[in-house]
Design goal:
Number of strands: 0
Radius of gyration: 22 Å
Structural class: mainly alpha
Largest sheet: none
Strand content: under 5%
Shape: elongated
């Protein structure tokens, strides 16, 4: 079983300083492979945050333009089902898909605002 710094058998709970965690030393570096599944999931979400923002912008722009997901998929150049999964965050686009969405957003944002 992997032990984390806060699970160290000598760590004691003290009321001094208002903290229940043992002091951290400079040598403690957390590697992704040492993370438990919840922390790994959160790290992946943080890494995907720029894509999530781009997808939220694309969905908002689609609604602003008053077009369907099928029409947007045709304009972006991807299958409707793929775009649907991206817009509902069931899947994240890889680099080519991200580029297509970014180009679509940039092209139509300029038309909408200008």
């Amino acid at each position: 079983m992997t032990r984390y710094p806060w699970q160290h058998p000598t760590a004691s709970i003290s009321n001094t300083g208002g903290s229940n965690t043992p002091p951290h030393t400079q040598s403690q570096v957390y590697q992704p492979e040492s993370l438990d599944p919840d922390h790994a999931r959160l790290a992946a979400m943080e890494q995907n945050e720029p894509k999530r923002r781009l997808i939220r912008d694309a969905a908002a722009l689609r609604k602003l333009r008053g077009i369907t997901q099928a029409q947007m998929a045709k304009e972006v150049g991807v299958p409707h089902r793929t775009l649907e999964e991206w817009l509902q965050f069931r899947r994240m686009p890889k680099a080519p898909g991200t580029t297509l969405i970014r180009r679509w957003v940039d092209m139509h944002r300029n038309k909408t605002t200008g």
